[in-house]
Design brief:
The chain is mostly helical and about 400 residues long. It has 16 helices and no strands. It has helices at about 1-20, 20-25, 30-40, 45-75, 85-105, 110-135, 155-175, 185-200, 200-215, 225-240, 240-250, 260-270, 280-295, 320-345, 350-370, 375-385. The model has no long low-confidence stretch (mean pLDDT about 90).
Length: about 400
């Protein structure tokens, strides 16, 4: 009975995280409450609790220290550039590895439920987003921060969906290999991809491409994959002008909204070595420089959280932002924490396919951290909740 309660609470947490029609109706702290109810529901399972403590004690310590810094600095507001955003991020990285331990121990039937609930939940938000994009505002997803579009997918869900693409592609491959039904997975893959193309966030398309590529690359058994990978990278570099021209054609085709076309053109400019126009990439670089400058001025322990504000921390790239926030010593502890959890979660499952997928999402997660804040519940749920269910599909 207790297991059924914990499974129900986890499914409810997935719905709140991925179905924005539901999540937008309630304050975000409802999800924190659900997580603690879930912890209480598994409290009598000593085996799982011990594993959670062993894996996540350092994550909990980091969260507490960052929260105390906010309290001492008297910076508890929830504005975009508030250090409380960093507190929420550290909480997320504590919570979802806890859930990983639980999900990994579930029976295959229950893992399939978790995967299906996740898939359907994201699909619901995708369909709602399509409605807004086609009938109300082509930039609905980009404008969610300034306009109340109920149920529309937000930035973090788009990045989560981009990371979802690789595991989803591998699930389709696995089903086809076993001659099982996969039409629903293929339909989800197509709808996810279409949403990412129409959401006017070029970086999500880049992350989706990386996720799919890495998911297939790590599954290649032969060591020849390293040679092939090096050859492909070399070919891309040598043919960068060709790739640039290809992107220019896409940008000028009239297929995409003007803001998306501008970003595609900016990426093409960077590829061919023309930095005269790089659109919002220039702003992204400026924001990264702000965080790096703060790190340069406070290299050992990071900035005083009293000064944590716009112009001090860029708020647009996880790793440079964390350098500015925590300095060398703080980041040394955080990096040890990442390595410890990455090593554990990659090697935990005896199924090699799951281990390979965990490796690919960790690499994608690392790359995403240079482009955007990545310690969000939506993204971490893909890593620690969805991917561990792959062996049950």
């Amino acid at each position: 009975m207790r297991l059924k309660v914990s499974l129900f609470l986890l499914e409810l947490l997935i719905v709140f995280q991925y179905v924005n029609l539901v999540g937008d109706l309630f304050p975000s702290y409802i999800q924190i409450g659900l997580f603690f109810l879930w912890i209480l529901s598994i409290a009598d399972n000593k085996k799982i609790i011990v594993k959670i403590i062993k894996l996540n004690y350092l994550s909990l310590l980091i969260f507490v220290v960052v929260f105390l810094r906010c309290i001492i600095a008297e910076k508890l507001d929830m504005s975009y550039f508030s250090p409380m955003q960093a507190v929420i991020a550290r909480y997320q990285f504590f919570a979802y590895p806890c859930i990983f331990i639980y999900v990994s121990a579930l029976e295959k039937r229950d893992k399939r439920k978790i995967f299906n609930v996740s898939l359907i939940s994201v699909l619901i938000t995708v369909i709602v987003s399509f409605y807004y994009i086609f009938f109300i505002d082509p930039q609905a997803i980009r404008n969610t921060q300034g306009v109340s579009y109920w149920g529309v997918g937000d930035f973090q869900l788009m990045y989560a969906m981009a990371m979802f693409m690789g595991p989803l592609a591998m699930a389709i491959k696995k089903r086809k290999k076993e001659k099982g039904k996969c039409w629903h997975l293929m339909l989800a893959f197509i709808l996810f991809g279409l949403c990412l193309l129409l959401c006017n966030l070029v970086t999500t398309v880049v992350i989706a491409a990386i996720s799919i590529t890495l998911s297939f690359a790590v599954s290649i058994k032969t060591k020849l994959k390293y040679f092939l990978g090096g050859g492909i990278i070399t070919l891309i570099i040598l043919l960068r002008q060709t790739w640039g021209n290809f992107l220019y054609k896409i940008a000028d085709s009239g297929t995409f909204y003007w803001s998306t076309s501008n970003k595609i053109r900016a990426i093409a400019n960077v590829i061919v070595g023309d930095f005269s126009y790089i659109d919002t990439l220039g702003l992204r670089i400026t924001l990264i420089k702000q965080s790096l400058q703060s790190f340069k001025e406070n290299p050992l322990f990071g900035i005083n959280f009293r000064t944590h504000d716009v112009g001090v921390i860029g708020g647009h790239s996880q790793w440079p932002d964390d350098l500015g926030r925590y300095g060398i010593f703080g980041n040394a502890v955080i990096i040890v924490n990442y390595i410890m959890i990455a090593k554990y979660t990659i090697n935990y499952n005896s199924n090699k396919e799951v281990r390979n997928l965990m490796l690919s999402v960790w690499i994608t997660f690392f790359i995403l951290g240079f482009l955007n804040p990545c310690l969000s519940g939506a993204i971490l749920m893909v890593m620690f909740v969805v991917v561990p269910t792959f062996d049950a599909l």
